[in-house]
Structure prediction request, 301 residues.
Amino acid sequence: MTGHELLLFIILICNTLVALIYLVWNLLRKKVKNRSCVFRTIVMILCPIVGPCFFLLSYLLFRIFFSRPVDLADVIFSKDRVSTFVHAEDSERNLVPLEEAIEITDTENLRSLMMNVVRGDIQKSLAAIALALNSSDTETAHYAASVLQDALNDFRMSVQKQYQMILAQDDSETSQAEMLLNYMDQVLAQHVFTDMEQKSYVQMMDQVCEILFARDRGRMTSPLYEAVSLRLLEIEDYDACEKWCERAVGHYPNSLATYTCQLKLYFNSGQKSRFFEVIEDLRNSLVVLDSETLELIRVFM
Prediction:
């Protein structure tokens, strides 16, 4: 072997070692979901010297001209800075939302509007009906209380019945669990129960998710991961919420909901370092951000 061939061989060996070290380092830092590190490793192996130098130069230029440290002094991890907005459901009828109609003084129109609301899908309007309990019109408030009580009693009986059926079913049956989770989330997301009862049903929802996850984790969709994570976050069960967030990362690493749930969890639990790690992972990912997520990050930071 000539001197030039030996030199070329050594360069190739060193270049391959650098590429492999880069890959292993990113894997140890839990960058498995970032496919770009695998792509860069391949490029560095196929393009000796040029590949590593190009990525190194790009990194240095970014750090020098575009990157700036995060000022943590301006970040206040307080839930007081987060506002929750309940959007009015779209209606085919040309009516104002019940939230606004409660403020009107025309009792006849208000009662008519209440009748139209309860003729529709009551399960999606429980939060609005609960607001009518504070109406100055006693008849409207009484009617709202009656409708709400009946709807919540139906929910309690239905959930308990379906939960017992799920426990008695064969381990291969999952459709009932999926339906129950969607049904529970639709109601629990409106926060019409007392704090104690809300917590009890969210914990039951967590148990049903565990059953579905154990029987067929492939049926746990990204919306279900998001639903159970947010409900657990609302009752401040951070450990259970983090459990589902981590599982979502493993099954749906490229889902926007996976990132938003983590951001909300680490913000509310005060885990600053984890919060900014998720921000960095989201920045390096291929996930497309929507306007709501951008606004969420802006509010948090």
